[in-house]
Amino acid sequence: MRSNMSRRILEKAEPTPGLLNYDAVVIGGGIAGMEASLDLAEMGFKVLLVEREPTIGGKMFLLSKVFPTLDCASCISTPKMAAVAHHPNIVLWTYSEITRIDIKGKGDFEITILRKPRFVNEELCTGCSTCEEVCPVVLPKEYDYGLRGRKAAYIPFDTAVPKKAVIDIDNCIFCGQCERACPAGAIDFMQRPRIYRVKAHAIIITTGYRLFPAERKEQYGYGKIPNVITAMQMERLLSPTRPFNSVLRPSDGKEPNSIGYVLCVGSRDRTVGNPRCSQVCCMYSIKQAQLILGALPLADVTIYYMDIRAYGKGFEEFYQKAKAMGVKFVRGRVAKIEGLPNGNVRLIYEDIDEGRVKSAEHDLVVLSVGLLPSNDDIISTIHGEKLAVDELGFIRVDPSTPTQTNIEGIFAAGCATGPKDIPDTILEAASAAARCAAYLKSLRQEKAVPVEAVANGGR
């Protein structure tokens, strides 16, 4: 939620005169948005890529490795981030929000975009991080899910695109140290938000997903028991850009000897309104288990699961490899998690194979949370026609053309249409770009045919 400070600033947004023209607007700068933008740009179309965060990259950049190949996630995403930033047919707007989409007609969308102020002149900022070094305010770092801190003046991460500082105005104390220290004189507290109107012929929605808030499962103690963390926090602990030099548990900074994974937290669970499988939780947990055993060879890793859904190419072999490495798999639902005086965590669970309730003690417990839609803000901005969504809020697409929404000219890809892994996301983004390109070319052809020729049957 925005504070009173940011709300007051955004209320003073200044409209920019004129109308900017692009062939397509891509909403969301994760791996799907970058792939779709690059594909369209390579076909010669002018693309505007809009991302709400200060940098593109999405959640893929935050991962350690990808399953089942265990390739470096950032090694895949970083070159795409650079390619997007330097492509002549792509205009990149980060730290920007879509506030309204008006459907004027076939292939005619007018999009209102709010560009929030960074309070840093992007043309002058060199990304040196001097402002971050001198800033006295320390806050939980979102990109590390609170495992370490960041400053009120900060660059999200070392390879951010664009690598420009941003000032968190809600938590800034206006001490002026960043302004005095900046060697480029880039700090500008007089910046104001600006509103732009953009005309586009097509839109691709690649808004990704949000993680199930683990604190909603109160019986699991997330946020109350220090050594209960989420799988995304574990991703950061395993990442090459990790906050610590090893896998450490939060309460005392010690390496855990016993780690338990609880699967399907917020997935396949009607009590939280999400009966659907999130498709990736089993495999990312197995991936993390293998990486943990690489980092902590003497650790015991146990995965508590309902069903292992290893359905993709190489997934079953990946699952069997984890078993061979010594990862234990227990089929059962965890009913409750309790903190112990020694800092350890007790799991009370139902062992389905034996048909009885058991308990187990671990140094660290990881909650494998599910994926939820992140489309609400975009859906509410569309005027003129209602964008169809399914019962969970994911964008509904035509089964025969899986990236086409119910609105002509609006396409969707990646986790905006439902949970999926990275290869499927990239494939779907490429498909959306191809269908969007075909649609744009058909519009050009229609405009190229004179009205008289159409009336005379093309003669």
TrEMBL record:
KW RNA-binding (keyword) present: no
- EC number assigned by the record: 1.8.-.-
> What pathway or pathways are given for this protein in its record?
Cofactor metabolism; coenzyme M-coenzyme B heterodisulfide reduction; coenzyme B and coenzyme M from coenzyme M-coenzyme B heterodisulfide: step 1/1
Instruction: Give the source's domain of life in one word.
Output: Archaea
Mind telling me which Gene3D superfamilies this protein's record contains?
3.30.70.3270, FAD/NAD(P)-binding domain
| Keywords carried by this UniProt record | 4Fe-4S, FAD, Flavoprotein, Iron, Iron-sulfur, Metal-binding, Oxidoreductase
Cited function? Part of a complex that catalyzes the reversible reduction of CoM-S-S-CoB to the thiol-coenzymes H-S-CoM (coenzyme M) and H-S-CoB (coenzyme B).
- Family membership noted in the UniProt record: Belongs to the HdrA family.
| Protein's recorded name | CoB--CoM heterodisulfide reductase iron-sulfur subunit A
